[in-house]
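Posting for a labmate who doesn't have an account.
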Amino acid sequence: MKPIVGVRDLALAATIVIALSRFVDGPLAWLMAVVLLVATALGTLQIIGSGDAVASTAGVPIESLLPPALAAVAGAGLLRLVPIGLLLLPALAVVAWFIERVVTSEARLARATTPPSRSDRTEILVNGLVAAFGAFIGIAALAAGGITATGGGVPPASSGPFELGGLAVADGLIAFLLGYRIAALRSSVVRDVAWMASTAAAVVTITAALLRQIEIPGLLGPALLVLVLFLWDALHGSSPARRRDPRRIAETVLLVVLGLVIVGWSIGLRA
């Protein structure tokens, strides 16, 4: 396949920002992660939109922008586990390769004139889960008492007001973005896609909040969140049949009840 113009430049630019983010902490690191997410998405939009044969007559599908953005954030997250030194160089090379791979894959699918094949769907899922894993690590690493290059784990519930709910919401946002991309492969109805992505976000947010109550050590917390996303994908492996499917209502009610239980438990532990 002919190389897509601009992909390597985007991967290089994102990797430079990721390298710089390794040397900052606190609010500035969070700000750089958000800027990286938005800038990579806009860069991917420019690359795909400048192609000669974008499949969609309505323009570039928004779901194609999400995996590259998540891949960049994942790179910044995974780099948090690499000690500052010579090891950063090979780590950055891997990050650049992964971003380039994801952007190339999404650009190819956006320009295709046929629906994604089974292998394409698998590739999107694998890329997305790897990106989510890195992003979950980054969220935990940026929090007080979280994962570090030498140890730590999921930040405990006693870390502070922001960590109590903000980190779980951040994990849920990552799940929503990935869930939206995966759901868009199964349905072209925005309402259905948004609902499936919302359930992914709710499940991961609830799980993340629970993990912070029991203080899961090391990389086990982010790995469990990825497992939850994988199981969510398995349960939603087919396109939604009906908008008023009883299973959909039951799932929504269950998520609401679980969310209330976790909130109540958290309040009780700190009372």
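Reply:
Got it, the structure tokens are right above this. The two ends are 60 Å apart (CA to CA).
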